[in-house]
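User: I'm new to structure prediction. If I give you an amino acid sequence, what do you actually give back? Let's try with this one:
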Amino acid sequence: MEKKYYIPTLDGWRALAILGVIACHAGTAAFINAPNIHSFFSLGSYGVQIFFSISGFLITKRLLEEESIENKISLKNFYIRRFFRILPAAWFFLIVIYILQLTGILFVDVKSWVASIFFYKNYIQDNTWYLSHFWSLAIEEQFYLILPLVIILTPSINRKWVTFFLFFIISVFFDRLHISKHFAGLVAGSFLAILFTDKKILNAIIKNYNLKLWFLLVLLMILGIANKIHMSNFCISWVITLVVIGTVINPDNFIGRILELKILKTIGKYSFSLYLWQQLFCISDFPKLDLGPVQKMPANILLTFLMALISYHLIERPFIKLSHKISPPVNPGKN
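Assistant: Good question. You get back a string of structure tokens that encode the predicted 3D arrangement of the chain. For your 335 residues, that looks like this:
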């Protein structure tokens, strides 16, 4: 697999992931009295798993490319870029929620506020809807703290197995404690990025990973998610990751062309801001609509996209550009 700093199929997957999350939240509320449709839309929650698989793969790939080019990894530059990538847009969302709370429109308890601001939301249980999605941001931030240190401290010859066993233990630990059933997606994506640095292994995978195998994994993924066959969360995470990354190593087929459609790449570009703002407008099985009609379809969908556009162009994109000026990446890309 050649060094591609921008991988268009990943934006396509991001689009499918965020559309799944929005469908899960808005759809389950809209069809609460239709159990079969309600159950179908609830499967969209696995969109978060797709985000994790992409993040684990892409961040690890970039760190390894930096190490290959510079013979080192700059922790300072890495954390600066992660800070500007995630926190400004997240804090903008939190500020708006806080203003709405000050005006008495909605309520978020103190425990949820503190856990969201300091990114340990995955460790607490609460019923606060509007910040509940910060559990996934917490998982990612914790992963970003661990990953570069593991890569730096592990000799490259042993890295893939040390990383696999370390993150395997962590993901099982998280799963057993019900902290996160999705952490394994980050592990799987990261492990595959490390595994692909071995050219022999990568070439063998490219040679043997054809469309038939891809569709078989897709079928397995669907059956596992729909509980038609028994699969642990860990196994489902790995299957989803293999499906996603399969389109990265073999993008030149009709699946890759679908994922690279302009509409999907555009939605994928706004996926992080969409993920933040859908939580305010798309209420899942929530008994009270604090914002009234704007939390019902189609207004909730339109406002989600509107706020995502504002957030991306006024907050997210400018701060990403600023981070690249402060800490220029050795492997720039739009992913």
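You can read the tokens as a compact description of the fold. Here is one thing that stands out. Residues 8-156+251-326 form one domain.
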